[in-house]
Amino acid sequence: MLPDPRSADRPGENMPAEEVACRERLKALGVEFEEHKAESDPEIGCSIPYPIVIKTLNKSVAIGPGTELNCSMAEAAARFTADVVQPAAKAEFGTEVKSISQASAFVCRPRHGTRKLSEHAFGNALDIAGFTLSDGRKIEISPSPPEKDAKFLNAVRKAACGPFKTVLGPGADADHALHFHLDLEPRRHGSTFCQ
After folding, report:
1. Section 93-110 average pLDDT
2. Is residue 82 pLDDT above 90, yes or no?
3. What b/e string do you get for 61-88 counting C-beta neighbours within 10 Å, with b at 16 or more?
4. End-to-end Cα, the chain, rounded Å
5. Given phi > 0 = left and psi -120 to 50 = alpha, else beta, which region is 107?
6. Cα(113)–Cα(134) distance, rounded to whole angstroms?
7. What is the pLDDT of residue 2?
8. Residues forming beta bridges with residue 68, ordered by sequence position
């Protein structure tokens, strides 16, 4: 693996003030979460010193299964759900999103076909496979969804570029044909990579 300074991150005796503040913001947003034990694999380089497992992204949107993230990524996902996903669902379908099906959160692995660690290795990425609306309808991410679903998915994907630093999905490559990959990878000059 190529070196990444985050690989050395380990939990301290006391949780840093920013981690505590982030959790307070999550509570204010209505996010249900549980603290999780620190994860690291020095051999591969994965590390998530203060992970949480989120159950809901706000009071009304569940997420599963077992979504382990760092707090910053959890907060970005919660704000994005409230500010973008829900308004887009109301505009396109006249109803709200009830749940989000995630395909991947924290996973200790490199990026496919590279020696660079994935943002998943730091709990800094979330893969979304689909959405379930309040009326029970499922919107699945795929290369050619039905027209109305496509309009909603395109709006969500386009709006993700900015709050998230990397956004990938169908058409980007074969690995992202059935989900949206969203992450907060630090990039030079605060730029984004959206495909």
Report:
1. 96
2. yes
3. bbbeeebbbbbebbbbbbbbbbebbbeb
4. 25
5. beta
6. 38
7. 85
8. 53
